[in-house]
User: What shape does this take?
Amino acid sequence: MAQARMAWEHLVTQERLGREEEPAPQRHRTNFQQDFDRIVFSSAFRRLQDKTQVFPLAESDYVRTRLTHSLEVSCVGRSLGTKVGEEVAARERFEVVDPGDFGSIVAAACLAHDIGNPPFGHSGEDAIQHWFATSNLGAEALAPLSEQQAAEFRRFEGNAQGLRVVTRLQNPDNEGGLQLTFATLGAALKYPRPAHRTDPADGVSGKKHGYFAAEEEHFRRVVERTGMLPRDPEAGVYCRHPLAFLMEAADDISYQIVDFEDSYRLGLLSFEDVASHIRPILRDDDRVNARLAQIGSEKERVEYLRARAINQLVEETATAFLEREEEILAGRFDRELKELIPSAEAMAEIERTSFERIYNAKGVLEIDAAGFGVLGGLLETFFGPVRETAEAERAGRLREASAHSRTVAQLVPEQFLYDGVTGERLTDPYLLLLNLTDFVSGMTDGYAVSLYKKLTGISLPHRG
Assistant: This one.
């Protein structure tokens, strides 16, 4: 019989994937703080500095990238986690976990929440999905795969890629990759289900998938060690880790408010637009009015409104979580917390305006559209040569592969072509395709554009 309620003592376990012995306590840095540091120092995190948040390839040095967005989300997540942790830790009387640990877990999960996103943001995910849906080569690549494996590419998802990045692709010589704690990995799993079992009718956690078949064993270890409740365990479908709701909320708070600030700086929204949408979130009108009257520039007024709004939303979201804690622990809650806070209507209006005037702005759409050509073009260019040379090399007849295929395949780094354990060339259709999408999705915006232009002859290096 399945357990009826998740237990906090398991949910905040300090055990690590790949190093599951009881970790030794450290006086100067907790295991969850170490998770945060490991993510920050990873190369995948550094590449977020040249990956799109909202405005692709922005010429302004003011607007957020995925890296600055992730850092800001982690700050909001730390505040949310700590507020919840104060209540939970006082009640549970933990011996080795304190409120700050909740904040550190959520902060680390937030830091990694976009680490698997491809170039060009969410339109990059759409571009990869589009290639598999429309390309003859893409259809040919999917033909030998299982239902679950094929669904992973048809519905390519940055969240699932993120779990792969932190548990396998970063520090690949380690079992478990970065060897993060199970608590942090659980909190980072927004969609604890495989690709062929996505179903928005199941709740917010059913909208997308959170892991690839290649990482199913890692996923199983996370749910086992944290005690996440099963929904359909044979199919690999589980209830969310409770702190995943806070990670999601931190992301929602950050991007919805901050995108307004960025849009003001780019001239898409006026100060009046920003103020009229954010003021309904704030409660102390007299104090806000008095402070705004002391601020000279509109830019700084926008920054003040942004800071006050985020602070208010953190308070409301932490309260909403604690009011529904029992439902969450019992696996009966599967909604976004932002729907249940006093500022829900104001946030919904901000989201509507963002889609109408920011995300559908001409400059954003133009570069998003270009992303389809770039990512689809890279997949189209590399798949055939990588497959042909792989089969030829495993058969000992590499020279029989076409000169074109041998030339193009040499542009792919070796870690995406060879098995890291056996050293053999990858020929399994699923692993070959998975490694190719690792290569393309791991690119920065700038590198993807530069490589595409070189491969298509649009831009060639010259000397002389």
Residues 34 and 218 are 20 Å apart (CA to CA).
